Amino acid sequence: MSEVIQQTKTRCFGFNYEKFADSDYQRPMPGQYESLIQPIFKEINSAKETSNLESMSIAMRMLLCAEESAFCIFMAESIHAKDSLPPKLAFELIRQFRRISWEEDRHAIALGSLISKLPIIDDSQNPTRMARKIFLKIQHRDPKIHFQRIAELDRTACIIINSIIKSEYIKKNFPEMKKLLRLITTEEASHIRTSKLYVEKLGGLSEEICERESIVVVTELTKIMKFVEFSFESLGIDTGEIQKNLNRRSAFIYGV
What we know:
Layout: H1 3-9, H2 17-20, H3 34-46, H4 50-84, H5 87-117, H6 128-137, H7 143-166, H8 168-173, H9 175-201, H10 207-234, H11 239-246
């Protein structure tokens, strides 16, 4: 089965990228992360416990939904900005949103490739449907609130990924996967800064509203974490520590 077909089967939202993005968007080539992905394939093939690979598949599927959701949001906003903002501001934001869209797309391609090598998950354990509903629910018509939520969503994603990286099981059995996840969190941190800057350029929000929107996002993410709790714990990932950091708006633990 070709890599492209495998990626298509692991998609969370299942949209046609070429129709969703406008004509001048060039998708990352599947080989963009080749040097990082191939060693992880070897780690997966060397893993002895099938149950842990199933748990890994669940965790990666949840992350994939977050990356695809972010791609949709930033690509849509880059298209919308052309007609809704002054030309000078629009040009700079479109440039930044396209960069983010490309990086989110690249993350999704990499995670989709990993998932294609991991066990297929029974629907009763698969977080994809729940994650998709939650990411759609988080959207808001007010662009300031919308992007404040996106910044918060990226913050929570970084907290979750960092917890995966810290797992002793991951350190011992998937050191190459850590490299990929670290790269993703580094890029996600810059996405948070861009979202927050966009909110400020649109007029900003009060601390009270920011706190309220943080609670909205964390409440929804908590539902997913409850759903995947057993799988995460089986990989040595401390879900209690994740929840503690999710509840702390000051937990920008990656220097944002």
